[in-house]
Amino acid sequence: MNIPKCCLFLIVSFLALFAEDLNADDSPPNIVFMFADDLGYGDLGCYGHPYAETPALDRLASHGTRFTQFYVTGVTCNPSRTGLMTGLHPARFPKYAADFGFGDKLTITELLKRKGYKTGHFGKWHIGPDDSDGTYGIDDIETLGNSREESEGRDTMLYSAAIDFIRKNKEGPFYVNVWGHATHFPVNTPEALAAKFDDVKVDRSDFSPTMQSKFDECMQIGCGLDQSMRQYLGDVYQIDLNVGRLLATLDELKLRDNTIVVFSSDHGPAPVILANKGARKYSNNMLGYAGEFRGGKHTQLEGGTRVPFIIRWPGKVPAGRVDSTSVCSFIDWLPTLASIAGVEDLPEQLDGEDISDIWRGTERQRSKPLYWKASSPGAASAMRDGKWKLHLPRQRVGSPELYDLSIDPSETNNLADANPDVLKRLTRQLRAWNAELPAAYEKSGKRDDDN
Question: How far, in Å, CA of 295 to CA of 317, rounded?
């Protein structure tokens, strides 16, 4: 049978386009991970802050999925980062990772590097003493500090460096950590940014009951709530400005459709009064908001462990969706990205699980409980299993606390006495996990856990 040349041309063209589409679908996605520091669950407009202006992040959420039950792996900076980089609970490391690094434990960046990814890290480090290029399989590392650009704020330089990395590696695939400094202590926002919120007058009734003690502390040290709030809002706004710049770059380079973009925070908001090694630091501008949740940084309450999590991946992650049922964690970061990137040779021990199906819109319960504990043998520990959250006191001194988060997300009604069977089951489980941990921990003593 003779096929006319015009038809043959159309058939060949169609097959070429079809093959190109298949290759595009099979190509591993780029990954951009933007991490704020000490940003509260409720500090963004799309997470309910009454005054914040975060148009870029709100738009990112509208184009992707926003999770409302997403957790970090630690309540200070290094443990939070340790869990996501290694897929292991930070309390498993007998040597404090901020001082000694991750030892022989594989990281997500090393695994992706083996799959042909170009890897980069820009901004805050706090995951070991060595930040030279090549550490943890990261090609380009720039541990940039705060910048004080009047127009865009203290994270400007590190976002600019990340944007340069993306431009240089636009052919992909690439993975990049963009780890900012805002809203970590101290918050001293340039006047040009704070002035955007000159009209803000704090009405305490606009905030949850859990925020009122922070307002009280702020007043006790002699600060003005309005001015302190304007400073904090300006710092959050500069995060949004820089996120907007990065997203615009992805659009300009036509990378949007094959790039996973994630924005989150390393734990809950810092307190107004920070106590560290016997010293007390006061900051009238530390008005981070955890929404309805009690607690914040340094606590294993929901305000310290639950964070905003926004993910966009066009055509893969549902757009405009709010996932309020799935319980997820950064302990899942390594196995999930490894699954997406086609990494097959995973470490034998992982505490997280692959939640890529949940990112894509599946609703299911996680198979593994979540655990929290500081790197100290007698430290208090906590766990979440299903709807239940259990807190065991330090060195078993005091009473356990048990909360049903489905009806009491603020953890105000201790149900330990009313649910002895649940308490017994979870206590046994949490103590069994504690028994797996090191009997002693080594720290250099040179670093501040709060960094």
Answer: 31
Query: Chain centroid to CA 313: how far?
Result: 17
Question: Do residues 123 and 158 touch, judged by C-beta distance below 8 A?
Answer: yes
User: CA–CA separation, 125 vs 77, rounded Å?
Assistant: 10
How far lies 29's CA from each of 115, 244, 326, 344, 349, in Å? 12, 20, 23, 16, 25
What token pair was written down for 284? 């009238």
If one counts every other C-beta atom within 10 angstroms of the C-beta of residue 85, the result is 25
134 domain residue, yes or no: yes
Please, what is the angle between helix 225-252 and helix 212-220, to 10°? 120
Count of domains forming the chain: 1
Q: Does 118 map to a domain? A: yes
Q: Is residue 436 part of a domain?
A: no
Backbone angles phi, psi at 409, to 5 degrees: -65, -20
Whether 39 maps to a domain, the answer reads yes
* Enclosing domain of residue 192: 28-368
Locate 326 and state its tokens.
């799935």
pLDDT score recorded for residue 22: 40
Q: What is the pLDDT of residue 24?
A: 45
Q: For tokens 């704070």, what's the residue?
A: 194
**Which tens digit of pLDDT belongs to each residue from 436-447?**
999 999 998 665
* Amino acid, res. 272: V
316: domain CATH number is 3.40.720.10
> How many Cβ atoms sit within 10 Å of the Cβ of residue 244?
18
Model pLDDT, residue 280: 58
- Which H helix or E strand runs over 382? strand 381-385
E strand or H helix at 434: helix 420-435
pTM above 0.70, yes or no: yes
CA dist 28 to 25, 85, 108, 237, 397, Å? 8, 19, 15, 32, 50
Listed residue (122, 281, 81) closest to 187, CA to CA: 281
Query: Smallest Cα–Cα separation from 290: which of 310, 272, 305?
Result: 305
Q: What is the pLDDT of residue 20?
A: 43
- In the predicted model, residues of the chain with pLDDT beneath 50 are 12-13, 16-24
* Helices first, then strands: H and E counts in the chain: 13, 15
